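Exercise 7.
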Amino acid sequence: MSPAEQDLNPNRSLVFHMEGVLLRSFSVFPYFMLVAFEAGGPLRAFVLLLLYPLLCLVGRKIGMKIMVFVTFVGLKEETFRIGSTVLPKFFLEDIGNEGFDMVMKYCGRKIGVSEMPRVMVERFLRDYLRVEGVVGKELKVISGHFTGLMEEKNTDLDGVFSSLDIGLCCFKNRKLFSQCEVVYLVNEGEKGNWEALPREKYPRELIFHDGRLAFRPTPIATLFMHQQRAKPVGHEGKTTGCTLCL
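Solution. The predicted structure, written as tokens, is:
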């Protein structure tokens, strides 16, 4: 359901859930795989892939903690640029046209909420969707390196919501938006039929810094990639080496 016309008051704040409202896919695993591969290398990505069956069993909350730890532990905070260089391309390709229209037609203050670490989504939401605030988990840092652990609370959540705010989320995230005066829920069944956002509707020109992955790294696609990398390279029928570089 979209916000009613009477709710599109520029003096109000629209608070929307990025994964539940904008993205068509129901899994954030590919985004962590992108970070693991691009920032951490093939070995880290392979470990994350091996853990995928476990992620499916432990539930979303614990699974998120596992993905964050494997993806970020040991990475340098100062040199982390994936959130502004590589991820925006894949976020844009995953945005639903219908969800995009619901968010962008609102002319007031917009605040994006994500279950992913803030460092992964902030530049995309600010640069491409022109949001004024981003709420996401902060990663703990020691000696300039990510520990792979998240702060227990969304430190920026306090004071974000007010009685005038409009919430836009899917059913399973509605509890987070309980402080909003009005909450509109996105039907997850209909969301599965959303069309991809056309390139001509991109809010700004996409500046993509070539990464090593040109495809969306779903579990199946990533498994196939590792199988291809592990194939021996032969010369005149003899094996001379292996393409898997870990």
